[in-house]
Design goal:
alpha+beta; 9 helices; 24 strands; five-stranded mixed beta sheet; eleven-stranded mixed beta sheet
Length: about 450
């Protein structure tokens, strides 16, 4: 069996500019295409303009390279880090096919290529291409596993009769999780919403290629199915359950674990209890991901991620008015002047999964963890594992959020895995640490 082919949604807009760095053909092209082009929509049809020549297609058009991997294309002004603190536009180059489709009145550019070619970019986009060999191999396995699990899930959702729902609203509570089921016209997107994929813009290395080749077709399995292998930057010392972050499904391989080779002394680790969670976040427990080693961190954090230094323990501070304005802007709900943030339920890592926001106009319970993070920051809070300190001074009331970790916390902790790799753990040992009850299998 050869590596399957996948489709990756790269960027959407009313008009997209791209350059074909080689010879490309398409069904509606009368001649081979190369050079700079612009794509736009006119009367429900796609128009591709190359100088004075215009190509008119129906609702999609695909450019196929004549010379295979030796050709590539560049998409201009691609937004990366959407809604995160590092959001920016940049030109990105890719190999494989380029497809344009119409979605909700806009154009979307889609890259079609093999899973293994996709992974060459993902490993270099999600972390430094100069990471340790064992970390690179571990990440190759989980990125491959996650992708194939998502493709299988998409097929099952399309075959099912029921509409998949991620938002539940009552008069007193909003529950919402953010996964990738909204991508119905391609397999995955290219941003943090799925996995960072920035094409050949993120220069790969012989080490990355070796990691991909060494683990070619290798995935994590459980019960005969490919694992939905998740990852994030830093767990903060304890990992979270899948069902506390996404849909209410328990995966035996995504369970709570201490990110250490021994239990931390002096801490109660039932972080579903408020008092234990507060003490954990206040503390500095030993953990694989509790490191300030810049060399190790540079393996995981690309240049824009290194703009963040306080990830294991962090804090943010808002005046009462700042918090009230922020939550109204980010949630679209006017609570009036916010008077309290009350954690109602915490997951096993201490991450809040139900938070009551009280204001002088209304109150509402929100969850899950990413909805909380989105509502309390201009981009995203590093995590929902935080406790709230309220104070009053001459300027008025202030809310200080003291937090732990960076990301949702379910699955592989990238910084913890980097430390494990630096300490001599093999990629198999790293994977078995973070994915209990799973096993490795080569499926192609």
């Amino acid at each position: 069996m050869n590596a399957p082919e996948i489709s990756v949604g790269i960027v959407s807009g009313s008009e997209l500019s791209f350059t074909l760095n080689g010879k490309y053909t398409c069904k509606t092209c009368e001649v081979t295409q190369t050079g700079k082009h612009t794509a736009r929509i006119s009367n429900g049809r796609i128009i591709i303009v190359n100088g004075e020549q215009a190509i008119e297609a129906e609702e999609e058009v695909t450019f196929t390279p004549e010379e295979g991997a030796s050709s590539g294309f560049t998409l201009h002004a691609v937004t990366i880090g959407v809604n995160f603190h590092w959001q920016r536009d940049e030109d990105q180059s890719f190999t494989g096919k380029l497809k344009f489709i119409i979605e909700e009145g806009k154009l979307t550019a889609v890259n079609i290529l093999s899973v293994e070619d996709y992974l060459l970019s993902v490993i270099s986009s999600e972390m430094s291409a100069t990471s340790s060999s064992e970390l690179l191999k571990a990440h190759a396995v989980i990125s491959r596993s996650w992708l194939l699990a998502q493709m299988d899930k998409t097929a099952k959702l399309k075959a099912g009769a029921e509409k998949y729902t991620t938002t539940f609203i009552t008069g007193k509570e909003l529950t919402k999780w953010y996964d990738r089921e909204d991508h119905s016209n391609f397999d995955v997107c290219a941003d943090d919403h799925c996995q960072r994929y920035q094409g050949i813009t993120m220069a790969s290395t012989p080490e990355v290629e070796h990691a991909i080749n060494e683990t070619y077709g290798l995935v994590l399995m459980h019960g005969g199915a490919v694992c939905d292998a998740r990852f994030y930057k830093c767990c903060g010392g304890i990992t979270e359950l899948f069902e506390n972050v996404w849909e209410p499904v328990s995966h035996p391989y995504l369970q709570m674990l201490i990110d250490n080779d021994r239990m931390p002394a002096g801490f109660e680790t039932d972080l579903t209890r408020e008092e234990n969670a507060v003490m954990w976040i206040k503390g500095n427990p030993p953990a694989f991901c509790n490191t300030n080693d810049r060399e190790i961190l540079s393996q995981v954090l690309n240049s824009y991620d290194q703009e963040t230094s306080d990830f294991f323990r962090w804090k943010v501070s808002y005046t009462q008015q700042e918090l009230s304005d922020l939550v109204r802007s980010r949630s679209g709900i006017d609570f009036g002047l916010i008077t309290d943030l009350e954690p109602l339920s915490r997951g096993v890592s201490g991450r809040i999964i139900r938070l009551k926001i009280k204001g002088d106009k209304r109150e509402l319970i929100i969850g899950k963890e990413l909805e909380i993070r989105k509502s309390l920051s201009k981009s995203h809070l590093y995590s929902s594992a935080f406790y709230v300190e309220k104070s009053v001074d001459a300027t008025g009331a202030r809310f200080i959020l003291h937090g732990a970790g960076w990301g949702h916390g379910a699955g592989l902790c990238q910084i913890g895995a980097a430390v494990m790799g630096a300490r001599g753990y093999s990629y198999e040992q790293i994977l078995m640490h973070y994915f209990k009850n799973a096993y490795l299998k080569k499926i192609y």
